[in-house]
């Protein structure tokens, strides 16, 4: 800056100087530059003020390129062009324009495009307008998730759409304290993974399985498809019962248990969480344990596929099917399954926060008479029982 002021003062004083004097000063300046070039080793360091001074001088007198020796003429021209670009970039900076789309709205657009792969930008734009968001359709198209192929549903969406009409059943074996084998049958709906029915017998037959199917599914609420394996125990009586109830029988391929993965996973959970920790004393004992586990499984056990929720009981304590509040009778079964200390607490008197009367089998030391369900009536997992129609 000082050099620039000195240059202006020199220009104002130059008309009052003689021509010979100016030539002498120019010669002295050039000689000094030559001396400096000999003494300075390496590249000459210039400040921003030096660059500005030289650029302004070049702008007013382009002929000074012949007199400059400390830098190359191309460097000075490059400085001038860079300053020209910066000046017009600063002068053309945005002064406002279209308002920015908020992060929440961008996330909502992406979520709507992911959850609805068949929706395009016009459909999502219309839905956002109904929700009160003022945004253009071009902005919606900009923040949508880009897809490689044509929009179509995947296998997960396909199975989720058909899961409410599909159920599965399977049998598994549990040994008793006397080394006998008990056979348990499970029925599970694929939509909410709810355990519809579980029962135990010493000798499964086709007629017994047909009765369990009738007890598991009401005649007007049965699924459209029932997945099972190709065990020979499913005889003609079971298939006739399915056909009479309007349920299509879907046996899996031979040697392919993975095709009945929901039932196999449920049996694995029952083994790991229940029967592997209990020695069954007999058929009635195992039935009580499995029915208690079924109530715990449906009302309290969380599932990752259900967003860590229970199949039937919602987080607010209401039944998912009827919407009515449910009393906490299933906490006793949960305590029975998680440890001996909790099981002793149940046998001693139950949970203080429950208002429902405890089940009779949970109090073996009570003075009142113990009630055992009749063998002719098959109790369901929800505490109700009904006589099955004759096959």
Provide a descriptive summary of the structure in words:
This protein is α/β, with parallel strands linked by helices. The chain has three domains: 2-13 and 21-38 and 48-87, no CATH class; 107-147; 162-362, Nucleotidyltransferase, domain 5 (2-Layer Sandwich), CATH 3.30.420. The protein contains 14 helices and five strands. It has helices at residues 2-13, 19-39, 48-60, 73-91, 103-115, 121-130, 137-143, 155-162, 206-216, 236-244, 261-273, 283-299, 330-338, 340-348; strands at 166-175, 181-189, 195-201, 225-228, 248-251. Strands 3-2-1-4-5 form a five-stranded mixed β-sheet, with helices on both faces. The radius of gyration is 43 Å and the shape is rod-shaped.
Q: Might you state the CATH topology name of the largest domain?
A: Nucleotidyltransferase, domain 5
The string of secondary-structure elements, in order, is HHHHHHHHEEEHEHEHHHH
Using only C-alpha atoms, the radius of gyration works out to 43 Å
Question: What integer is the average pLDDT?
Answer: 75
Unreliable parts: 329-391
Shape-level CATH architecture of the largest domain: 2-Layer Sandwich
Which secondary-structure class do the elements indicate? alpha/beta
Count of alpha and pi helical runs: 14
Backbone shape: rod-shaped
Please count the beta strands (DSSP E, at least 2 residues each): 5
Task: Work out the strand percent.
Answer: 5-15%
Kindly state the percentage of residues in helix. Answer: 40-55%
- Say which CATH homologous superfamily of the largest domain is assigned: Ribonuclease H-like superfamily/Ribonuclease H
State the end-to-end distance: 108 Å
Mind telling me the CATH class of the largest domain?
Alpha Beta
Give the tally of structural domains: 3
Biggest β-sheet: strands ordered side by side in the sheet? 3-2-1-4-5
């Amino acid at each position: 800056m000082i050099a620039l002021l000195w240059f202006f003062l020199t220009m104002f004083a130059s008309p009052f100087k003689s021509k010979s004097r100016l030539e002498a000063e120019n010669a002295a300046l050039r000689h000094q530059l030559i001396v400096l070039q000999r003494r300075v080793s390496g590249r000459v360091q210039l400040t921003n003020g030096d660059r500005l001074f030289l650029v302004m001088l070049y702008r007013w007198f382009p002929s000074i390129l012949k007199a400059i020796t400390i830098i190359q003429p191309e460097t000075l021209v490059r400085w001038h062009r860079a300053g020209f670009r910066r000046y017009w970039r600063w002068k053309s900076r945005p002064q406002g324009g279209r308002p920015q789309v908020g992060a929440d709205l961008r996330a909502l657009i992406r979520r709507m495009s992911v959850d609805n792969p068949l929706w395009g930008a016009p459909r999502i734009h219309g839905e956002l307008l109904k929700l009160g968001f003022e945004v253009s359709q071009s902005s919606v198209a900009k923040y949508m998730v880009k897809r490689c192929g044509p929009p179509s549903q995947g296998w997960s969406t396909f199975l989720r759409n058909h899961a409410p009409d599909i159920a599965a059943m399977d049998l598994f074996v549990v040994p008793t304290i006397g080394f006998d084998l008990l056979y348990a049958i499970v029925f599970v709906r694929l939509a909410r993974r709810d355990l519809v029915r579980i029962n135990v017998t010493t000798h499964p037959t086709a007629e017994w399985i047909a009765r369990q199917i009738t007890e598991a599914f009401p005649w007007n609420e049965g699924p459209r498809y029932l997945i099972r394996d190709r065990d020979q125990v499913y005889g003609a009586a079971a298939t006739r019962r399915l056909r009479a109830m309007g349920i299509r029988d879907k046996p899996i391929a031979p040697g392919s248990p993975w095709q009945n993965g929901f039932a196999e996973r449920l049996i694995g959970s029952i083994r790991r969480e229940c029967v592997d920790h209990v020695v069954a004393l007999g058929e009635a004992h195992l039935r009580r344990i499995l029915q208690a586990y079924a109530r715990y499984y449906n009302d309290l056990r969380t599932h990752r596929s259900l967003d860590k929720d229970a199949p039937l009981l919602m987080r607010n304590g209401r039944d998912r099917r009827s919407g009515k509040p449910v009393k906490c009778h299933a906490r006793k079964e949960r305590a029975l399954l998680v440890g001996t200390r909790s099981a002793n607490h149940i046998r001693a008197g139950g949970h203080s926060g429950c208002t429902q009367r405890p089940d009779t089998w949970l109090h073996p030391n009570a003075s009142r008479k113990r009630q055992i369900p009749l063998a002719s009536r098959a109790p369901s997992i929800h505490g109700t029982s009904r006589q099955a129609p004759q096959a």
